[in-house]
Amino acid sequence: MTTLKPEDVIEFYAYTTKTGKNLLASALVEFDEVNLELPLELPGVNPPKSETPNLRLYEEISKALERASSIQKRFLADSSPSDNPDEDIKMLDELIGRAISLEKQINLSRKAKKIISERKKRLSEVESELSDIEEKLRRYYATALEAVSKDPSKMKIARLMIETDSEILRAISLLNSSLDKSTSIDDMRIILNNVVNIIYSIKKRLKEISEKVIEGSLESLISEIDHAESNLKEVLSSIGEYLTLSGKFSQLESLEKMWERISDVSKRMPEIQPIISEQIPAARRISQEKEEIARRMNELVDIIRTRVKGSVDCLDLLYKNFREIRERVISVDALIAGEAEKSIYEMLEKSQPLLAEREKVGVELSELSKLMDKEYVKQLKKELEDTKKSILEIASRLYKTKEAIRHKAVEEKVSLMIYEGSDIVVAHGWVPRRLANNLKSHLERSMGGLVAVELEAPSKKKKPPSRIKLPKIASPVSLLTHKLYGFPNIKEIDPTVITSFLFPLMFGMMFGDMGHGAIVAIFGLFLFLKTKGSLRDLGGILLYSGIFATIFGYLYGAAFFVEIGTHVLSPIKEPTKLFGIALLIGAFEILLAFVIRTIDKILSGDKFAAFLEYGGILTIAMYAGAVYAAIRNGADVMKTVSDPLFQAMVIPLLITATTPMLKSMKEGHGLLHGMPEMVSTLIESTLALFSNSLSFIRLAAFAVAHETFGVLTGMFTVGSTSITPENLMHLLTNPISLVTFIFINIAVIGLEGLLSFIQAMRLTFYEFFTKFYSANGRPFLRVRELLPS
C-alpha cells in the first residue's frame, strides 16, 4: 500500500433478510476493513429500531472513565469485570465528586490564612453597608411617621402617584429609544410591546387613584392614556405588516438571485436558452413585485415612526396634566411619606443580598477555620487517599467490563447502521478496492450465501473516504497535515511523509544549536512516551525538530551559545552563504509542490491542467530554468536577467498565462471570458512566485537572530562576543554570569523555539501546501474505529 496517496476504495451494498441482520453485523465487524455509512440514498429503507444495551452501557462506561481520568489515569491489570456496572457508575460519580471536593479543600488549606483575612475584610465591609442601611431605614421610618401623623389618609395615594409618575417617564424614555435610527423594526416591536404593558399598568393605577381622589378628576387622563394605547396598537399592527412583507421580500430576492444564476448558466449553454426565454416575463413580475413591496415597506417605516412620535407627544401631555393634578391633590407631607415608604422598600431589597452574603461569608469562615487545623487537613488527605483507591478499584472493574462488551457494542453500533426495508436489510459503505472480492467472499461464507453484495465504482458526485496507512516514523506529523490543515481527498497525494522531513529541516536551520536542539528533542521524547493523542504527536514532531536543530548546531559549531569545534557554516560570519542555502531550500520546496500538483492532475485525468495550467509542467520548467540561471550567475541580478536561459523562460510563462483563455474557448466561452484569470495567472507566475521564494529567507534570518542572541549572551556573561572553552571557566565560577547564562538560554529555548516552530508551520502551510494540497477529504473509519477504545 502506498503511503503517499490514499488507497483506492470502492462502494458496496450488502443485502440480506431481516433474520440475517445480526449475522451480517457480526460478519462486518469480523472483516473490519470497511467504512460503513448510512444508506440514505436508497428508497424504501428506514433506520432500524434495535435494542442496544451493550452499546448504551459501553458509552456510559466510557463517559464515566473519562470523568475518572482526572483522578486516576491507570487501571488495575488483575481486576475482574463489574457484576453491577450501572451501580458502579453511580458510585464512581459520587466518589469522583467527593475526591474533587477533598482536593479543593486540601488546596484551600495551603492558602487558608490569606483567604480568611480577605473574607474577614469583606465581612467587615458587608457589616458596614448593613449598618448604613439600618441608619437610613430609621430616618425614613421617622420621616414617614411624621408625615403620616399630619396627613394619614393620603399616604397610599401618594405612593401610587409616585409609582405612576415613574412609569409614565419610563414609557416616554422607551418610546424615545425606539425612535433611534439604529433601532431595527423588529427591536422596535419588542420595545413597543413593553410600553403597552407599562401603559396597562398606568391605567390600572390611575383607576385605583380615581377611586380615592374626591377633588380633581382623572377621567381626562384615563382618556389620554387610552388614546396612546390605541395608537401604539395600530403601530404594532403596521410593524406586523412590515415584518410579513420583509419575509416575502427576502424570498423574492432569493428567487431573483437564483434566476440570475440560471441566466448565467444559459449563456454558456445555448441549447437551454429558448426554455429560459419563456420564463423572462415571470422573472420581470418578480422584480416588479419586489419593487412594490420595497415601496410599501418604506411607507410603513414612515407611518410607524410618525405614530410613535405622536405617542410620545401624547404621553408628554399626559405627564404634564398628571403632575398638575398630583400637586393639587397631594400635600407635600404626603409626598414625603410616599417617597419615604418607597425608599424603605428599596433599602429592604438592597439589604437582602447583603444579608445572604453575610451568612455565606460566615459559613465560609467557619469552614476555613477548620482548614487551619493540621490534624483536620491530615484526615482530609487520608480520606482523599482512600477515595482514590476506591475510584481505582471501581474504574478498573468498569474498564474490564468495557473491554468485555466492546465486541458486542461494536456489533450493535453496526446494526444501527444497517437500514431495514419491508423484507430485507441493507448495509452500505466503502471497502479498499484490493479487498472488495475478499469482502464479498467473507460475507457469503459467513452467512451461508444468504447475502447479495453489490460493488460499485465511486461516481464523480460522491466523496469517498481516504484510507491512508502512514509509516510509524511519519505518523506524528499527521498532527500538522491531517488535524491542523485538513485530510487529503482520494485523488491527491498525502504530504505527511514529505513533511516529516521538510518541517524538522526548516525548524533545525532556524534553531541550530546542539544544546537547545537536544533539550527540544528530549522534551519531545518525553511527550511522545508519556502522553496520548495530539500531545503525543506534538512530542514526535518536537523530537524530529530537535534532532535536526542538533545537526545544524553541529554545522554552526554551537551548544548553548558556546562555540564548539569548527564552524562548517556560520550564520554570523557567512550570512550570505546561509541566505543562499535558504533560498535553495525554498526553490526545492516550491518545485516539489508543483511536481506533486502535476502528479495529482495526471492521476485525476486532467492532463490539460497538468501540462499547461499554473503549477503544471510548464511552470516547473519556467521556475527551474529561472532558478538555475540565477545559480550559475551567482545570483547577480543583471547577469541573470541578461542570461539567454532566463530570457527563454518567458515562453513557458506566456503559454501558462494564456492558458485560461484557451480553457475558456475549450469550454465554449469567448476569449475575453478568460482574461481576468489570465491576468491573475501572470501575476501569480511572476510576482507571487518571486515573493514565495523570498519567504524562505526567514530560515536564514532566524538562524542569524539565534546566533545574535549568542553574541549578546557572551557580552553579558564573559565580556566577549563569543563564549569559548577558554573563557567558559570564568562563566562557571561567576554566580551572576552563570545565572544570566542559564536565564538567557531558557528564554531563547522557550520564546525563539516557539517562533521557529510557528515560522516552520507558516512556510509549510502557506508556501508549500497551498500549491497542491486541497485537504478537502475525510478519513476512512474502519468498523473497530466506530467506537473509541
UniProtKB/TrEMBL annotation:
Residues 116-143 form a coiled coil. GO terms for cellular component: proton-transporting V-type ATPase, V0 domain; vacuolar proton-transporting V-type ATPase complex. Its main location: membrane. Keywords: Coiled coil, Ion transport, Membrane, Transmembrane, Transmembrane helix, Transport. Pfam families: V_ATPase_I. GO terms for biological process: vacuolar acidification. It is found in: Membrane. The chain crosses the membrane at residues 501-529, 541-562, 578-596, 608-630, 645-662, 696-716, 736-758. It comes from the Archaea. GO terms for molecular function: ATPase binding; proton-transporting ATPase activity, rotational mechanism. It is a multi-pass membrane protein. PANTHER family: V-TYPE PROTON ATPASE SUBUNIT A, VACUOLAR PROTON ATPASES. Belongs to the V-ATPase 116 kDa subunit family. Component of the A-type ATP synthase that produces ATP from ADP in the presence of a proton gradient across the membrane. This is A-type ATP synthase subunit I.
